[in-house]
Specification:
alpha/beta; Rossmann fold; Four Helix Bundle (Hemerythrin (Met), subunit A); five-stranded parallel beta sheet; four-stranded antiparallel beta sheet; 13 helices; binds 5'-O-(N-(L-cysteinyl)-sulfamoyl)adenosine; binds zinc ion
């Protein structure tokens, strides 16, 4: 699949800072030491509805990771998937009388537009589950042949007991896992499974559903977790720097993915850090396609909201926090954008050197975007109150806000 166009990232004076970021698996901050090419896999959308603010907040977090790494003069190898065949997508298509593939294509196209408008840097590879099937099938066959997977009425399940590290990503106990498994696409109550938590690797073709040639597995379609493992291993290999997504992906998705990869390669962990963004709520409940309590990025754009203001609204919340979208959040962002634009519209102003360092330091410290915004606010307030004589300072601020925060002033 093709991704979306990249906005330019201005080069900044001085030195970028190395990222320390919270890793769910170890429960603390880790100093990543990526080589000259940092590697990150971010779980993409299941395209059965438009991009909502919760999605945008999660992709914003990983866009910041990319920007911090670019600022250290590294290249970034960023891979993202699109779950363009899965139960919720098929169910929505059925409910609305749509062709599932057309629905996926249409919502993926809208996601690209939203990401472009929000100045999210694109992944180097943007891969759909369907196009990954030829790579998924041999992995499932290998897992089965090595005894880490088993067949149940034609479907193939992964055996979580085959992985000695199972549970280390989310750190949850069995009861919590069982609850979340039922909530998030698993089938813990299906009779005949070796362990209720075992996730499906390959689902045998069902009447009226799309299916693909699965070699010795028979016709069917891939399970969710193996999709991301196949794509990540194919393009990044084991031991990449970050696997990212919202906190609802820690279990089962990232846990199971780490287990699949451990069984396949004998190595653990697949990613050096498992990074999870908090959940955005609306009216007191997690924004979710299945509940329908959604604020769409595309709707806000159609209503004339500047995408830079949407981005500032996201940046005003720490990526790990759960937070609530309100009209006030948006109004504050619109007002902040206007203040910042006024402040950089003059040819000179207060010195910007310290500010660039403050933005860098804030982001390097577990992506503390709210602290970065406060630093820019202070500079803008100084500019408004006293101005300054540093020629070119507003230009430096403008470039730093663009390069590090993805906001075009
Ligand atoms: N296709 C899978 C990942 S492989 C999937 O989870 N798709 S999704 O469309 O449901 O979600 C896409 C990303 O948005 C995931 O990282 C998910 O954790 C995140 N996300 C979903 N809802 C919210 C929310 N309310 N707040 C923050 N992030 C969210
Ligand atoms: Zn994923």
């Amino acid at each position: 699949m093709h991704a979306w166009p990249a906005s330019e990232v201005p080069a900044l004076p001085g030195q970028g800072r190395d990222l320390r970021i919270h890793d769910t698996a170890t429960g603390g901050l880790v100093s990543l030491d990526p080589g000259p090419v940092a590697r990150i896999y971010v779980c993409g959308i299941t395209p059965y509805d438009a991009t909502h603010i919760g999605h945008a907040a999660t992709y914003n977090a990983f866009d910041l990771v990319q920007r911090v790494w670019l600022d250290t003069k590294r290249q970034v190898h960023y891979v993202q998937n699109v779950t363009d065949v899965d139960d919720p997508l098929l169910e929505r298509a059925q409910r609305d009388g749509l062709d599932w593939a057309a629905l996926a294509e249409q919502e993926t196209a809208l996601f690209r537009e939203d990401m472009t408008a929000l100045r999210m840097l694109p992944p180097r590879q943007y891969i759909g589950a369907v196009e990954a099937i030829p790579g998924i099938v041999p992995l499932v066959e290998r897992l089965r042949d090595m005894g880490a997977a088993y067949e149940l009425e034609g479907d193939v399940y992964f055996s979580v007991e085959s992985d000695p590290h199972f549970g280390k990503v989310s750190g949850l106990d069995a009861a919590a896992m069982r609850l979340l498994s039922a909530e998030r696409g698993g089938d813990p109550d299906r009779p005949g499974k070796k362990n209720p938590l075992d996730p499906m690797l390959w689902m045998a073709a069902r009447e009226g559903e799309p299916s693909w040639d699965g070699g010795s597995l028979g016709r069917g379609r891939p399970g969710w977790h193996i999709e991301c493992v196949a794509i990540a291993l194919d393009h990044l290999g084991m031991g990449f720097d970050i696997q990212g997504g919202g906190s609802d992906l820690a279990f089962p998705h990232h846990e199971m993915g780490a287990s699949h990869a451990q069984a396949l390669t004998g190595e653990f962990p697949m990613a050096k850090a498992y990074v999870h963004a908090g959940m955005v709520a609306l009216d007191g409940e997690k924004m979710s396609k299945s509940k329908g309590n959604l604020v769409f990025v595309s709707k806000l754009r159609r209503d004339g909201v500047d995408p830079a203001a949407i981005r500032l609204a996201l940046l005003a919340h720490h990526y790990r926090a759960d937070w609530e979208w309100t009209d006030q959040v948006l109004q504050d962002a619109v007002a902040r954008l206007a203040r910042w634009r006024a402040a950089v519209s003059r040819p000179d102003g207060p010195s910007a050197e310290a500010l660039v360092e403050q933005i860098r330091e804030s982001l390097a410290n577990d992506l503390d975007a709210p602290a970065a915004l406060t630093a820019v606010d202070r500079w803008a307030a100084l500019q408004e109150q006293n101005g300054g004589t540093d020629e070119g300072a507003p230009g430096v601020v403008s470039r730093a806000v663009d390069a590090l925060l993805g906001v075009a002033l």
